[in-house]
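Before the break, one more example. Copy the sequence into your notebook; we will annotate it together after we see the structure.
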Amino acid sequence: MRATARETGARRARIPNAVLGTAFVVLWCTGYPAAKIGLAHCAPFTLLDIRFACAGLLYAALALIARVAWPRGPQALHAVAIGTLQLALQFGGAYLAAARGVNVGILALVIGTMPIVTALMGLPFGEPIRPLQWLGFAFGFGGVVLAVGERLAPDSGAGWVAYLAVLCALLGICAGTVYQKRVGSQVDLRSGLSLQHAVATVLLLPLAAHEGWRCDASATLLTTLAWLIVVNSMGGFGLFYLLLRRGAVNQVAALFFLMPPVTALMDYVVLGDRLGALKLAGIAIAALGVYLATRPAAPAHSLSVPSAAAPRLPRARGE
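Here is what the structure looks like once it is written out:
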């Protein structure tokens, strides 16, 4: 059995990060048009609470079937913090802002700064930013600006609460990403994500109750919820955390530069939104930025160690 487990792990390790990263971007981006559809049939916190509760139960079932260890002691507290930041604060802020009328272009532009803010947050924890990465960040953010430029409309009267929610969403995803990489990578993904989703469900429960659990229970809403739960919460977050375990925070965060351009492409396919030359240029420039920001360090660094994966965990523990 041990040999079989080792062989299975080796097969998984052979899946290139580029393949996993591409799958992650595609799955994650489907959540934006799905959220637009869902919010037309359901109040924001109600939609999130149902999504997180169902995803948490599915992750718990996977953990029980596989008989994996559950977070205990400090690990459980870390999972609570990550669930608060990465799920409740990030998605709660983003969904509230969208429901209160924040222009989607402004929302995408602010969240598009996530790789830069995350890189700055990671500096005190030994996540260096190489010059080539800074160049990649510049191209990546430039691609985001081009992709969402046509959607930057004048102030829609959303109010300061809505824009504060946007900043909370940005803080949540950035701090949660750094936190997950630093302390959350030693926990099994299934049990860890189950606990994180449970925490987010409990935190958003009073807000969903305040909304009166407002939803129309239509076939469209049920289909959208199923997509958000299985594809985004299960597939998207599973790949996100797997990529964080494999690579540096800056390299994984850089993938978020692709989110607004790829989402614009999906909106064209799913919702029929206009796809102009600026959006297409934004996709190309953002892709170039991600390529530059995720390129590995100079060969001299990789030749000094026998394995690219083995030394990462000791560095993460030894602060």
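The CA atoms of residues 256 and 313 lie 24 Å apart. The chain is about 75% helix and 0% strand. Try to locate both features in your own notes.
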